[in-house]
Amino acid sequence: TLQSLPESSPTYRFDDDGEEYADIKWDELGFGLVQTDYMYIMKCSNEGEVFTRGELNPYGNIEMSPCSGVLNYGQGLFEGLKAYRKRDGNILLFRPEQNAMRLQMGAERMCMPSPSIDQFIDAVKQTVQANKRWVPPPGKGSLYIRPLLLGTGPVLGISPARECTFITYASPVGNYFKEGIAPLNLVIEETMHRANPGGTGGVKTITNYAPVLKALTHAKSMGFSDVIYLDSVQKKYIEELSSCNIFIVKGNRISTPPTKGTILPGITRKSIIDIAIDQGYQVEERAIEVEELIDADEVFCTGTAVVVAPVGSITFRSKRYEYKTGAGTTSVKLHSILTCIQSGRIEDKMGWTVEL
Ligand code: COI
To answer: SUPFAM superfamilies from the entry (predicted)?
Structure first.
């Protein structure tokens, strides 16, 4: 059963159709935390090595040992998925089972037990249902759901934590980049790398993200939106950005780097590949040399947070290369099909959406 709402909860507002919405400025959403009412928590101790029963709690701070695996050695994973409100007021999740499976793969790599697929989807559904008034009205954004799997038990020497905690919270969001839907300006990062062969670049561990802060912050201070990382061995193949995957378009051919351990297997990436094939594009997952960016027609990025973002320019060794953006481009077409499926505006032939 739900516990009472936190005292600070904003008042409810009813729209014309009688739907309940939180009283916030829906037109001003960016990608920052807006606290919602509830989060879901489920614990697992090594005794049984399985998660048993979780429950909703009021959204708030959590307590853990200062000696926990996650705080000391970064034993943690996260996921990201979105819930969209349809025009009829119902709510759609996009491919939640894919996030559940990716979390399981990551848990195996990080020596943690993970929730079953059903437990994961149930936690996500309960979190969205309990925070329903925070799912933006159609066309105003989405509810971003952030599941976390953390080693919360104490570990002084390096070893897997004996207690793990699965938490799911949510926040309404708009566009990820401050550019909104305007094209991104990227820069190639040549000295810092995001991932190494044999490392954890292919799973969504929290430890992949703090190390990008230095390159990202520097790029932003120079006016760029994000950086493109190169492979750490030959230093000539593009990998991904700090926050999303990358695609290039040349004529009818769409290419993206293969997910062979150093690239995050994005669920939006995978969905865009399927949509592009269905639309008659030739899609290739292959190593892409940085030089190839120079004569691409279009470049775009994909991610749950980012959705499909067009790239207007890439700067490489102080030279700026520009790409087609706007009406009639491949990225606009793919963005439109994806978001129409996600928000229930076109038929979901792929069977990707899950109605709450
Ligand atoms: C997502 O797209 O869901 C991510 O996890 C990327 C994150 C940097 C916001």
So the answer is: D-aminoacid aminotransferase-like PLP-dependent enzymes (SSF56752)
d(CA 145, CA 277): 28
Q: Three-state SS for 13?
A: strand
Exposed / middle / buried, residue 19 (Cβ in 10 Å: 0-12, 13-18, 19+): middle
Give, using CA atoms, the residue closest to atom 9 of ligand 1. 305
Q: CB under 8 Å to 311, separation ≥6 — which residues?
A: 183, 184, 185, 186, 246, 298, 299, 300, 301, 323, 325
Closest CA to 250 of 303, 286, 304: 286
132 is catalytic: no
Does residue 313 have a pLDDT over 90?
A: yes
**Given 204, 235, 270, 349, which residue is catalytic?**
204
- 212, 242, 243, 264: residue to mutate for ligand 1 pocket, most atoms within 8 A of CB: 243
Q: Label residues 243-280 b or e (16+ Cβ within 10 Å = b).
A: bbbbbbbeeeebbbbebeebbbbbbbbebbbebbeeee
For the CA of 146, the nearest atom of ligand 1: 3
- Which residues have CB under 8 Å from 104's CB, separation 6+? 114, 117
Q: Using the predicted structure, report yes or no on whether residue 248 has a pLDDT greater than 50.
A: yes
Ligand 1 pocket member 304 (CB < 6 A): yes
What is the ipTM metric for this complex?
Answer: 0.97
Distance (Å, whole) CA 342 – CA 92: 7
Is the pTM here over 0.95, yes or no?
no
Q: Which tokens hold the place of 254?
A: 């769409």
Which amino acid, one-letter code, is at 310? P
* Closest atom, ligand 1, to C-alpha of 204: 5
The percent of residues above 90 in pLDDT, for the chain, comes to 90
pLDDT of 10 over the 70 cut: no
Rounded to whole angstroms, the Cα distance separating 194 from 188 reads 12
CA nearest 177: which of 82, 243, 245?
243
Among the listed residues 306, 297, 356, the one whose alpha carbon sits nearest the alpha carbon of residue 330 = 297
* Among 19-33, 109-123, 315-329, the least confident range: 19-33
